[in-house]
Specification:
With 81 residues, the protein is mostly helical. α1 runs parallel beside α3. The longest helix has 20 residues, at 12-31. The protein is globular. It has one domain (12-74). The chain has three helices and no strands. 62% of the residues lie in helices and 0% in strands. The termini are far apart. It has helices spanning 12-31, 38-50, 58-74.
Length: 81
C-alpha cells in the first residue's frame, strides 16, 4: 500500500489538523462494520512516526483534545502521559 502521508513534514498547526481528521475517520470506521479500519489507523501511525517531536508538542496535544489522545494511547500510537 502506498503511503498516504505527505513527504514534507507538517508544522504544528497542520499536523494537529491532519491528525484530528485522520483520527476522526478511523474512529468513524470503527463504528461502521462495513468500513475497513486498519488503513485509517495506519495513516495515523505514519503521521505519528513521521512527526515524533510534533506529536509531543503542547499545541498539537491541546488541539487533539483528551478523547483523541486517549484513542492514540489505547492503540499504542503514543505512550506518554
Amino acid at each position: 500500500m502506498a503511503s498516504t502521508v505527505s513527504a514534507e513534514p507538517f508544522g504544528q498547526r497542520m499536523l494537529a489538523i491532519e491528525l484530528r481528521y485522520r483520527i476522526d475517520v478511523a474512529r468513524n470506521a470503527e463504528n461502521r462494520p462495513i468500513a475497513p479500519v486498519e488503513p485509517h489507523v495506519q495513516a495515523v501511525r505514519e503521521l505519528v512516526d513521521k512527526h515524533p517531536q510534533g506529536i509531543k508538542s503542547a499545541h498539537v496535544r491541546h488541539n487533539l483534545g483528551p478523547t483523541r489522545l486517549a484513542w492514540l494511547k489505547e492503540r499504542g500510537l503514543i505512550n506518554e502521559a
